[in-house]
Amino acid sequence: MATATKDQLLKDPQNSSVRVEIFDQAYNLRGSDPEYILKLAEYVDAKIRAVAEATNTIDTVRLAVLAALNIADEYHLLKKKQEPGTTDYQKRAHLLACALDEVLQEKRKAG
């Protein structure tokens, strides 16, 4: 579980060092937002533990890579949802906008 002490969170806010634990390994991480770093470490720890429970491997490097692939998959799925024209509403809006443009162009030609 990722952890940090309150003193670590209150140190230099521009470049704080936070001690976190990910899959029973301690890391000292630096950044401008210690609480955010702690939140990320907790997320990564949870992902690695979930992969460890789902697989029979005890190789920590393999677990880390599998967890990283899961996180990358989540990221790309979310990114794809944000791309224009990928949701049904965005596709429909685009089709309706194109149809409206056609109608307006026909009226301009006729009028």
Report on the structure:
This protein has 111 residues and is of the alpha+beta class. The protein has one domain. It contains 4 helices and 2 strands; from the N terminus they run αββααα. α2 packs across α3 (60-82). It starts with 5 loop residues before the first helix and ends with a helix. The mean pLDDT is 84.
Short descriptors:
111 residues, alpha+beta, two-stranded antiparallel sheet, 4 helices
Task: Present the secondary structure layout.
Layout: H1 6-10, E1 16-22, E2 25-31, H2 34-54, H3 60-82, H4 88-110
Antiparallel strand pairs: 1-2
How would you concisely characterize the structure shown here?
By secondary structure, the protein is of the alpha+beta class. It contains four helices and two strands, in the order αββααα.
H/E series, N to C? HEEHHH
Shape field: elongated
What count of domains describes the coordinates?
A: 1
Major sheet: size, sense and barrel closure? 2 strands, antiparallel
Strand order of the largest sheet: 1-2
Question: Between the first and last Cα atoms, what is the distance in angstroms?
Answer: 70 Å
